[in-house]
Amino acid sequence: xxxxxxxxxxxxxxxxxxxxxxxxxxxxxxxxxxxxxxxxxxxxxxxxxxxxxxxxxxxxxxxxxxxxxxxxxxxxxxxxxxxxxxxxxxxxxxxxxxxxxxxxxxxxxxxxxxxxxxxxxxxxxxxxxxxxxxxxxxxxxxxxxxxxxxxxxxxxxxxxxxxxxxxxxxxxxxxxxxxxxxxxxxxxxxxxxxxxxxxxxxxxxxxxxx
Length: 210
Hints:
There is one protein chain. The protein is mostly helical. It has a single domain, classed as 3-Layer(bab) Sandwich (minor pseudopilin epsh fold). Helices cover about 45% and strands about 10% of the residues. It contains 8 helices and 3 strands. Strands 2-1-3 form a 3-stranded antiparallel beta sheet, with helices on both faces. Helix 1 (about 25-50) runs antiparallel to helix 3 and helix 4 packs across helix 8 (about 200-210). The mean pLDDT is about 95.
């Protein structure tokens, strides 16, 4: 996910703010990226400023090995490091919608159909689980150490890396991810998110860790 080390910077979006319209609005992307993600970046840097032993450790390694993080800053690394990692992964897992139907590709497509019966059944289950998230969190498609796909929830800014999973794609179901455009209509946000998933990237991640 991230080989970046301290001092962390706000990564630019891999597309323009309006690229995901009409599914995710320009205003949502600007606020989500420029304000909220920047806040996590700044707070992560502040957390690590006086911890030189972690300043050359990349973020993925920290999140995979939380037991190595000093107790006094561990919760902050989970919150702010997870916030940086999760948001960067979320933004990088999206792409502008094309003219054709947005569906899984490659080996990941085959794995989804094998495990869930069909892409439509996968979508139904994923949406059901994303709708059921209480409060703030994320819903992921991850691969476990045995190569099986799991629809996996993390609360707040917890990272799937800390549970030993390889993330493939994710939806942010914190209210800030959709409220400006959809108000409290999370179901509409989820339906429209499916139009802008970068399935090519998800498949590449699946195959790299195959």
